[in-house]
Amino acid sequence: MDIPFKEYYQKIISQPEEFLNPMVHILGIVVAGAVTWWVFNMVMGRVRKRYGKRPFFEKNLLLFSLIRRAGHYCILIATASALLNMFNLPIANSIFEAGMIMLLASIAYSMVKNILPYLEENFSKKTDTKMDDVIINLSKKFSGIIIYVAAGIMALDRLGLNVMPFVAGAGVAGIAIGFAAKDTLSNMISGILLIVDRPLKVGDRIEVWSAPKNSASWGDVIDIGLRATKIRTTDNIVIIIPNSEIMNRDIVNYTAVSDEIRVRIPIGVSYESDIGKAKDVIVEISLQLDWVIRDPAPKVVVKNFGESSVDLEARIWIRDPRRRMDTISYITDNVKEAFEREGIEIPYPKREIFIKKEAS
Description:
Layout: H1 2-14, H2 17-51, H3 55-59, H4 62-87, H5 90-122, H6 131-158, H7 164-180, H8 182-197, E1 205-207, E2 218-224, E3 228-233, E4 238-242, H9 243-247, E5 261-269, H10 275-286, E6 299-305, E7 310-318, H11 324-342
Antiparallel strand pairs: 1-2, 2-3, 3-4, 5-7, 6-7
């Protein structure tokens, strides 16, 4: 062990410039990095002292820490890169670049993880649409996976490893998983389309085609998830419908445009009755309801001439779609009583039978 050390020492003594110049360069790079680090910290301290009490920064205290961390990483990367360029080692450069890619991925994920809560607090919760809520939730769940997987592929590529077989294998696996979970994926895609296209939203009153027999056939949307939509009927029954089924059917939405809808109520009177008087009675009864709109006023028209009745139709605008059945029930019940008082006949099918008796 003494001989190699002596030879190495004698070489340094005989040719000192070959060793001193690289050492001076290395020392200069390290000193430059240290000075840059100190200056950056000083500038950040002054910026935080000057702007830290502003409302935006008081609500986002992690922003300064994130900027400081990113700046320190940049200084370290620049210093390490300058040192590696001096030695010109391809393997070391490849390892360094792969490590830098993963480090940048960590920085990117930290930024995303700190920005998403801010967006959720200041934008998502202040909007009526649920689309931004779903996007933020998906970003929280999958942003880290996407960032690190992409960074891992790029890092392996910089190390000289062929990642195409892994990518191809992942694609085949994805196709197999897609076939196995096609119903779930179909519901998730339909859920995203429901949120983007918005044919219905939470709180809307819609028709329910899959309601149990002898139960209410319409209800309010209480939740739109990625897989299914929940609807509470007027019988207080919650029906969970897969999103793909909703996207493949006609959606009858009573509150999509406004809360005002028109109710049509068929009423029949006999041919012998006073049609004008019957119309006035129906309009007068409908105006007794507080939620009936006065302008446009209720209107009654002759819809058809039936076999035994003149078919009238009351057309009434109401302010609340949820009072539709109340409106129909109230007017139907009171019209019958009013017609009886006014002598207006509500017809029903009649048959006259003549019996002919032949002489024996």
